[in-house]
């Protein structure tokens, strides 16, 4: 293929397959590599570009929604030196984006996290037979509430932190599970991973749900230590690790977080 669009989990499996087999599969014809469905953190993106793609072409993340269509994207001619690792690109044609504070609802400037809100030429008319949900999905000025936390840089590159409803807390500190999932995926024995939490008096005790690469073996305690050495104190895996045959994902590659939670209960 010359064009490939896929999800984060699939890319990690592709990298494992290529490296295990000494890059015997010729992917030199691949010229455009797009990843969507969930954010990819910068460290993981660099690892995959260097190991799977051998630094030849960039991974271009994109950002979209059923209600709005394509929201942010990298242009087709963006090269390895242009694409910002971890960013989903800049607003697509016909798209306006603003970031509002999760506490005040007021607009914030560059490099400040908040909810992403959108105005689009491809804006939906509404949810079928659900006027209440339609009305609640827009603010008083007609901007669509994405439910995603993100920020933009001075040069208008958009970064996604995570879904508001998926954020967890420990000792009043906010946790985006994708940050811990990225650390888990960086371990050479891990093929796929998700993070969920157990309730406690202090907040969410994070639990890693992990699929190990074929032929690999690692003790849960060592994997917990690997993660805890690389994250902030409130992001530590205080709930431990469980190993599974498959991490629950949708056909689009998105983690099924309710099923993750069911696995630890």
TrEMBL record:
Keywords: Ligase, Peroxisome. Its main location: other. Residues 180-254 form the AMP-binding enzyme C-terminal domain. SUPFAM superfamilies: Acetyl-CoA synthetase-like. The keyword Ion transport does not apply. GO terms for molecular function: CoA-ligase activity. The keyword Aminoacyl-tRNA synthetase does not apply. GO terms for cellular component: peroxisome. Residues 5-127 form the AMP-dependent synthetase/ligase domain. It is found in: Peroxisome. Belongs to the ATP-dependent AMP-binding enzyme family. PANTHER family: AMP-BINDING DOMAIN-CONTAINING PROTEIN-RELATED, LONG-CHAIN-FATTY-ACID--COA LIGASE. This is 4-coumarate--CoA ligase-like 9.
